[in-house]
Recover the amino acids of this structure.
């Protein structure tokens, strides 16, 4: 990366609850996002992907690790000193219903963002709200309506307009299209692509849907039980996965093509509880190539080529198979 | 296939009405579909399409007294060979079929099992009712069923409560419960939607295996086109309470006839195409399901709609084993 | 779609006829209380010994009490004290209950302390706590209000806290925090606006409870001083004459039932209307 | 589970401590010197001073508080000013009528309330529901003392079926006691059934809309089995709570009813103590009543572990 990263996360860890059995939601996660770049966080439940998003925005406090935004460590800052972060990083939520206060009009929902940072007032405020609504493809006249008068897709647009109001550099999009129907999902994906290009937004795009992530993101990080399994460019991760979990995840996602090969290789068993993650490699209990070695040490991320990294003792691409498998 | 084999389930021109605060609505207004023995029919649609309501009406589980079947037939061929109209069957007779010949698996494994009864008791209850087994042998049967759905340590887990199991395990229990009396028709209402991808794959494989072994017909309700491609023999697509197209899974994905089916497939991120500026863009369908008026329900969002689409009733045209509800399907390039 | 929210509110609210009737009854009672000097046929304190314990009739529609005072007039004046005390209790307990409920629900550090105090207050039956408080504070209308407010504030705290706990986890609150909206605004706009409806419903219930409790206290002789006519004191002083003149006891009691019942029905109507879960199920 | 119960026990002890604190300090707010009050009008300043010393009233208030806490922790609730005997003894003498009144009332309330609540939930919106809900609403808004007076007029004075008031002669047979308790228990049963009906109805409605009820129906079970086994089994926890709390609150909350019916119970004791400003008795009664409430709460928690497997494991 030539440019200074917009966001750099180092050794980020979050435990919920108290010892002896805390929920290990996020464990030693490191990544960075360059200005204007979209990084996808993919994983199943318990992978910690949403927790990472909230940690980055400091909506919850990290247990350890650092979060640098534009070079400044914000991981321990008190709320009072987070004004700049709140201006520069925003969130778009999964649930288009619960993410808008049902008692406020659209005008006030978006206006609140402007007020909080004293960005516009009076008639300039109204103008700006109208402008934001039009940016996300809603008529300005809708500003005096309440959220319940909109469909799911329209609400999601309002949520995006609210996030854009402070002109952020980074958007954390937490499953922004998962609750939407396919046809509406496509509308919102395209809108986010447009906005990204128009405003040069960087994004942390959190999703469980590999297809959506591959479409939206420049790079992808695959998470399992709070740890990064694999990280690299979208193309590399999706078409040349190096980690057995990534491979399994890709194989398990049904393709919308009756001629595509049916799902054959399948992971057995359940995702372990984040309260009692397996020792060593957290994936080993379901891994088709796990060996005794895997229980001993947590595998470090290692480089495949370029900035494509994966955390496995065995490189499936280079036939580094364990003797037993 | 459905032409030659007599159907197991045949829904004809079904209409369902609900009383609401703002008057009566008809979330289902013209559903025609059929499931042959041993076949999987996927019923596909987005939210508000009426697919779940349709499935509930087969079981007679519409919320009462608000909802009712107001038109059409739900013909079901019983094991005895007799064909009955489930929509007109007295509730007491319908109860004899529920769980015995028609079974259902629901979307939410976390909440679909009774939290205060062990999973064994819940399966055994059904077995005792329909198969007339005693307490001990019913519990034994429950254990066998857990084994059948690949739950490890079935002997021990039969005495566990739902909250002691993961979502995937609970969905297996739901399937075991549904299969416990060897139904000839299984209705699966979004059975994998609440599950993670890797668990979804397991459950889909399980349902397919059981279907092969037991030979039941499956009505599989889903919004996920990937799952449809994975599991279905034939597909029925619904939009705004109506069936708009039916065909074999290959036909639907390769040569969709209804503009909605076509547009829906093109909304998939996997079908994104590179635009002029080099960006990959997915197609989308403008707007959302709005008020349903005269004419074709999809017309307001359809790029091919012309004036005639907005008036009158559009009928479901059936030709061989494909049907489509569109005035212009012959003219529209696939 | 564009309809006056207030109109919509009333249309929804009064879909059930009973709610409308209760609301009207309540309005009539309140109007009578307000306009007592003009509405009441007699002075409530006018003693006429020759006409003591007269049954309901043309002169005294609801009969007279042991001093020959007109029962209807006393009920109308009694409404002032009974409803006035009830209303005051609602105001006080709503204000403090909402405040502490919001704080306890939003700030985890305050929660333990506030809720233990609430538990302690609720470990005593309403009437026992009230009678104790009045005994310590001294019997006066003000102290009755104070005592009943202390009794009912914990209920409001519980309701507000429970809603706050749910609402503060909702994404729109998270969104506000991510925007850097001040905590005060989050509490006073995002949370307060959304707990307003359960609080409003609770208010009507507490009004009814307070009217009932005040009557109970007065009846026990631990409420307002007996010379002030309230529905409770009327029953208390009439009690010993009930054998000869049942109306002395019957009518003030009916007044209590009518007022409390109307309040509850209106509260129920409000809840049915405001509770989206119930509305969807309709 | 033991951890949970232990934690619960801890918070209940804190609650008791807070009740004691509140009772002690609020009593001190009361006008008048307790010693002067105890001795009556003819007391001299010397008498009062001596008594203050005997009762430790001359010590700093915090010390008094701690001493008092120590006393009540060991079960000594002090001496009644007017009854000339220990408070604990006065309360014990009054416990029997209160106990049976609470027991019978809560039985009446539960036996009427639970079936009515279930019926009204199952036939929601139908005539049964309208009647049950209507009656429950009415019952909730009848002052119990007034209903008591009306009942006395009707069933005791006019019809003569039941004794007008009191608890019978000392040493009277239990049947006679029951006769004396019949009217007050009915009154309290009616008034308290309202809450149980509404709670049962609400929990049943809640449960009936749960997903597993649909599952139970999809198995082909009869509606009776769905309602009684699947729904009621799950609604049991909130219903047990409300029945238990009703019983707990009746122990000290039947004050007015006890007064109307002249039952020599704890409520009656409190009322006379209030009227006589017999603070040790008031304090003692409050502590005992709160203690019973807290114990019943603990009992409810223990019952949960039998009813709900989610708590057990």
């Amino acid at each position: 990366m030539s440019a200074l990263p917009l966001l750099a996360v180092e050794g980020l860890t979050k435990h919920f609850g108290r010892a002896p059995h805390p929920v290990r939601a996020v464990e030693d996660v490191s990544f960075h996002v360059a200005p204007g770049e979209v990084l996808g966080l993919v994983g199943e439940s318990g992978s910690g992907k949403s927790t990472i998003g909230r940690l980055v925005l400091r909506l919850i406090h990290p247990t350890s690790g650092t979060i640098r935004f534009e070079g400044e460590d914000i991981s321990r800052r008190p709320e009072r000193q987070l004004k700049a972060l709140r201006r520069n990083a925003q969130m778009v939520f999964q649930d288009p219903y619960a993410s808008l206060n049902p008692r406020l009009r659209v005008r006030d929902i978006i206006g609140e963002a402007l007020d909080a940072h004293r960005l516009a007032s009076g008639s300039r405020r109204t103008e700006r709200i109208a402008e934001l609504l039009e940016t996300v493809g809603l008529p300005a006249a809708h500003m005096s309506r309440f959220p319940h008068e909109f469909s799911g897709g329209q609400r999601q647009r309002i949520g995006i307009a609210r996030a854009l109001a402070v002109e952020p550099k980074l958007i954390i999009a937490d499953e922004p299209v998962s609750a939407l129907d396919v046809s509406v999902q496509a509308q919102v994906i395209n809108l986010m692509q447009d906005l990204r290009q128009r405003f040069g937004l960087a994004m942390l795009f959190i999703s469980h849907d590999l297809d959506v992530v591959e479409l939206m993101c420049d790079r992808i990080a695959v998470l399992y039980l709070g740890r990064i399994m694999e990280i690299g460019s979208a193309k590399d991760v999706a078409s040349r996965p190096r980690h057995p979990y990534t491979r399994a995840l890709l194989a398990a996602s049904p393709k919308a093509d009756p001629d595509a090969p049916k799902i054959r290789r399948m992971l057995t068993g359940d995702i372990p509880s984040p309260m009692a993650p397996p020792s060593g490699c957290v994936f080993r209990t379901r891994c088709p190539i796990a060996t005794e070695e895997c229980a001993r040490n947590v595998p470090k991320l290692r480089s495949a080529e370029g900035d494509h990294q994966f955390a496995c003792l065995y490189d499936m691409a280079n036939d580094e198979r364990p003797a037993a498998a | 296939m459905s032409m030659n084999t007599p159907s197991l389930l045949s829904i004809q021109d079904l209409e369902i009405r609900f009383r609401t605060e703002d008057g009566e609505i008809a979330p289902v207004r013209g559903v025609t579909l059929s499931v042959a023995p041993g076949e999987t029919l996927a019923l596909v649609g987005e939210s508000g399409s009426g697919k779940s309501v349709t499935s509930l009406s087969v079981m007679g589980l519409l919320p009462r007294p608000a909802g009712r079947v107001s038109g059409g037939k739900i013909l079901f061929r019983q094991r005895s060979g007799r064909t009955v109209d489930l929509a007109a069957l007295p509730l007491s007779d319908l109860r004899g079929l529920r769980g015995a010949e028609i079974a259902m698996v629901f979307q939410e494994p976390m909440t679909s099992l009774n939290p205060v009864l062990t999973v064994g008791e819940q399966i055994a209850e059904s077995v005792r009712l329909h198969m007339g087994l005693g307490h001990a042998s019913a519990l034994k049967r429950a254990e066998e069923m857990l084994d059948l759905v690949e739950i490890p340590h079935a002997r021990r887990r039969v005495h566990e409560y739902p909250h002691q199991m993961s979502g995937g395990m609970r969905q297996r229990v739901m399937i075991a419960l549904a299969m416990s009396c060897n139904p000839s028709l299984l209705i699966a209402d979004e059975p994998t939607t609440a599950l993670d991808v890797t668990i979804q794959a397991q459950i889909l494989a399980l349902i397919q295996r059981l279907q092969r072994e037991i030979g039941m017909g499956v009505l599989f309700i889903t919004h996920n086109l990937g799952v449809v491609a994975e599991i279905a023999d034939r597909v029925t697509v619904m939009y705004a309470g109506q069936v708009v197209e039916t065909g074999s899974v290959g036909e639907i994905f390769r040569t969709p006839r209804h503009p909605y089916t076509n547009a829906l497939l093109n909304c998939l991120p996997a079908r994104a195409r590179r635009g002029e500026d080099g960006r990959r863009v997915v197609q989308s369908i403008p707007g959302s399901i709005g008020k349903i008026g005269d004419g074709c329900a999809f017309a307001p969002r359809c790029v091919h709609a012309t004036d005639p689409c907005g008036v009158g009733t559009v009928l479901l045209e059936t030709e061989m084993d494909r049907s489509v509800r569109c005035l212009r399907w012959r003219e529209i390039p696939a | 779609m564009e309809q006056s929210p207030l109109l919509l509110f009333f249309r929804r609210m009064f879909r059930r006829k009973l709610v409308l009737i209760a609301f009207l009854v309540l309005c009539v009672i309140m109007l009578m209380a307000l306009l007592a000097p003009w509405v009441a046929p007699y002075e409530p304190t006018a003693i006429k010994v020759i006409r003591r314990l007269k049954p309901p009739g043309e002169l005294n529609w609801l009969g007279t009490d042991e001093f020959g005072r007109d029962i209807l007039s006393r009920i109308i004046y009694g409404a002032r004290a009974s409803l006035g005390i009830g209303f005051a209790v609602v105001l006080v307990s709503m204000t403090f209950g909402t405040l502490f409920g919001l704080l306890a629900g939003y700030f985890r550090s305050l929660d333990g302390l506030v809720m233990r105090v609430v538990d302690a207050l609720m470990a005593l039956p309403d009437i026992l706590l009230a009678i104790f408080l009045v005994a310590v504070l001294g019997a006066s209308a003000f102290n009755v209000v104070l005592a009943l407010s202390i009794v009912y504030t914990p209920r409001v705290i519980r309701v507000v806290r429970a809603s706050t706990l749910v609402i503060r986890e909702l994404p729109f609150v998270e969104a506000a925090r991510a925007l850097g909206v001040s905590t005060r605004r989050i509490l006073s706009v995002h949370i307060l606006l959304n707990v307003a409806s359960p609080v409003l419903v609770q208010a009507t219930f507490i009004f009814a409870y307070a009217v009932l409790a005040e009557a109970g206290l007065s009846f026990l002789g631990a409420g307002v001083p007996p010379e002030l006519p309230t529905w409770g004191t009327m029953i208390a002083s009439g009690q010993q004459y009930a054998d000869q003149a049942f109306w002395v006891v019957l009518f003030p009691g009916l007044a209590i039932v009518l007022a409390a019942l109307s309040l509850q029905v209106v509260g129920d109507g409000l809840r049915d209307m405001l509770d989206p879960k119930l509305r969807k199920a309709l | 589970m033991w951890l949970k119960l232990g934690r619960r026990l801890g918070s209940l002890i804190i609650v008791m401590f807070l009740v004691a604190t509140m009772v002690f300090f609020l009593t001190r707010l009361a006008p008048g010197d307790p010693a002067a009050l105890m001795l009556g009008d003819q007391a001299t300043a010397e008498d009062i001073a001596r008594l203050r010393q005997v009762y430790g009233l001359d010590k700093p208030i915090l010390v008094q508080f701690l001493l008092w806490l120590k006393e009540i922790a060991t079960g000594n609730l002090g001496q009644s000013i007017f009854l000339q005997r220990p408070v604990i003894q006065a309360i014990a003498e009054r416990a029997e009528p209160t106990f049976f009144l609470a027991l019978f009332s809560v039985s009446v309330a539960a036996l009427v309330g639970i079936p009515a609540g279930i019926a009204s939930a199952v036939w929601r919106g139908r005539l049964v529901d309208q009647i049950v809900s209507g009656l429950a609403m009415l019952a909730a808004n009848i002052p119990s003392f007034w209903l008591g007076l009306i009942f006395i007029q009707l069933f005791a004075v006019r019809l003569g079926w039941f004794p007008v008031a009191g608890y019978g002669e000392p040493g009277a047979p239990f049947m006679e006691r029951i006769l004396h308790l019949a009217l007050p228990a009915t009154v309290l049963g009616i008034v308290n059934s309202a809450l149980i009906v509404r709670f049962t109805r609400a929990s049943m409605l809640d449960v009936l809309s749960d997903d597993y009820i649909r599952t139970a129906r999809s198995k082909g079970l009869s509606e009776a089995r769905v309602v009684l086994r699947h729904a009621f089994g799950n609604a049991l926890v909130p219903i047990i709570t409300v029945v238990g709390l009703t019983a707990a609150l009746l122990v000290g909350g039947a004050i007015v009813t006890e007064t109307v019916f002249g039952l020599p119970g704890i409520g009656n004791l409190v009322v006379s103590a209030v009227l006589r400003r017999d603070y040790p008795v008031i304090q003692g009664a409050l502590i005992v009543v709160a203690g019973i409430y807290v114990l019943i709460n603990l009992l409810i928690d223990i019952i949960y572990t039998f009813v709900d497997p989610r708590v057990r494991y």
